Amino acid sequence: MVLLVATAAQAAIEVNTATVADLDGLKAIRPTLSGRILEARQHGDFKERAELQRRVKGVGDRPARRLAHEGLTVNRDKNQQALLIG
User: Could you report the per-residue pLDDT of 40-75, keeping only the tens digit for each?
Assistant: First the structure.
């Protein structure tokens, strides 16, 4: 179980710093969607998954769950800090 968690953490891709190649490497992302994500990111980082869904056409509840399952994170460092503080 510990090995699975460590592997998942290493495979995480942070949406706010991901390159086109990082995003295109996820099965749930087609080139059109990676372009939309990068374009929306030019207007500021995503603070949470809901913001990613609002700002990027094609990322609804179901696609967002698929992306999270594949390792895409949103604002990972700040969310981890919040968990440690809370």
Answer: 999 999 999 999 999 999 999 999 999 999 999 998
pTM here is 0.75
Domains of the chain, first to last: 12-85 (1.10.150.320)
Backbone angles phi, psi at 40, to 5 degrees: -65, -35
Phi, psi of 42 (to 5 degrees): -65, -20
Which has the closest alpha carbon to 14: 79, 74, 83? 74
Nearest to 14 by CA among 56, 42, 47, 36: 47
Dist. CA 47–CA 43, nearest whole Å = 12
User: What tokens were used for 65?
Assistant: 């769950």
